[in-house]
């Protein structure tokens, strides 16, 4: 009888440990994703910000106003990139998503800085910069998609 009690107790203990580990799985990934999202939110990244920037560029009266908006955004991207780089990630997947955002923002910021410093009369230079901005935009969309998939995977966003 004593042996049966010990076996049952061991089984219950193992079951509880397994249930606890299952409940904790994904915690590091959730923490990382929430840290990234919080940083982006604190920096003001939203659809409203995107629309505001597009409106400012569309309503600009001259090239200098457009360059001013791009310079402002470039500085914001640099600041956000630095804050994301300083986040302590707990999972490899979180590190990958963060790195994707950092690299995309770095590419976009560098392209915008080139526009700010470019000779606006040189169409070939502007075309090259436009291609770089497009590539950076694709990287940023990929990072957002990876983060969104991760959020769904760990129950932070409804499917």
Concise account of the structure shown:
This protein has 159 residues and is mainly α.
Number of strands: 0
Give the low-pLDDT segments: 17-25
| Overall pLDDT | 83
> Structural class, judged by helices and strands?
mainly alpha
The gross shape turns out to be: elongated
Number of helices: 6
N-to-C order of helices and strands: HHHHHH
Helix content: over 70%
Radius of gyration: 23 Å
How far do the termini sit from each other? Answer: 50 Å
> Largest sheet, if any?
none
Give the amount of beta strand, in percent: under 5%
Structural description of this entry:
The protein is mainly α and 159 residues long. It is 83% helix and 0% strand. It has six helices and no strands. The chain has helices spanning 2-24, 27-42, 47-58, 63-86, 92-117, 123-153. Helix 2 runs parallel beside helix 5 (92-117) and helix 4 (63-86) packs antiparallel against helix 5. It is elongated. Residues 17-25 have low confidence and may be disordered.
């Amino acid at each position: 009888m004593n042996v049966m009690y010990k076996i049952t107790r061991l089984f219950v203990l193992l079951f509880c440990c397994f249930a606890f580990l299952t409940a904790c799985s994904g915690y590091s990934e959730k923490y990382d994703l929430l840290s990234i999202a919080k940083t982006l939110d604190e920096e003001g990244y939203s659809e409203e910000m995107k629309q505001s920037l597009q409106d400012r560029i569309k309503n600009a009266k001259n090239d200098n106003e457009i360059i001013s908006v791009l310079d402002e955004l470039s500085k914001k991207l640099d600041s956000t990139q630095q804050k994301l780089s300083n986040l302590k990630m707990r999972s490899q997947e979180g590190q990958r998503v963060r790195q994707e955002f950092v690299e995309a923002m770095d590419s976009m910021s560098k392209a915008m800085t080139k526009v700010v410093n470019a000779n606006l009369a040189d169409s070939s230079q502007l075309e090259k910069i436009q291609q770089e901005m497009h590539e950076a935009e694709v990287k940023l969309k990929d990072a957002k998609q990876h983060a969104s998939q991760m959020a769904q995977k760990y129950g932070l966003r409804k499917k």
